[in-house]
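Example 3.2
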Amino acid sequence: MSNETEAVMLKAVLEQYATPDPKIVGTIPRNGINLAYVSHAEITRILIEIDPMWNWQPIDWVDGRPAIHETNGVATMWGTLTLLGKSLVGVGSVRSDKPDLDKELVGDFLRNAAMRFGICLSLWSKQDWEVKGNVASISTVQPRRADQVQESKNAHPANVQPKTSAPVALRDDEIEASFTTTPPPAAKIGSLISDKQKGLVSSLVKEVADGDVKPIIKTLFSKENLNTLTTKEGSDLIKHLMGMRKQSSDEQPF
């Protein structure tokens, strides 16, 4: 993929995914305040939605496992995330006494590396972001009552042990339980193309087909309308348009 194509796609990802849907945003308590948060499961869903062929690799391996460095009680793991053919470096960091250290490092790495592509970037920035569609300010998310949060935590099998006064590190399952909003059900296979996928298609089709995507949709899927595509077909269409963009760039004279 040419540098020009990469720039087009990265800009499209930023425009469509920088501000997450409030329905998938929760909060976790940190130093007396609630921090806005999107789970690694939702980040993974977004990555698949953008590019089903995404992947990640650790920077280094030790004894067949990703290299982990521990300093002053904090474990870190560096890696690269590849999305739409572009690889960027990210890092995961958690307290080294976490019971599921490896899994939590991967989850934190995915959130950090995805942010480098612009995914959920608004949660990492103090800048006011433009509201698009039905995406409202994160500050409008209403927290659940404390008794509801505690009830959810107590119901989890991991919390049947006697409690102590010492602080306990939050695990991913506890973080999920403390979300201020109930996560939406996972998208079903064959569900319709998302608005964010449509945005990526729109950005690409302007480059390769003068904004007219209908003939391409009819050729690839025997359908007449973009809105009738499934999420998988949407991903396939994005990949096809990227291939057209690359071919067009390769054919241009020097």
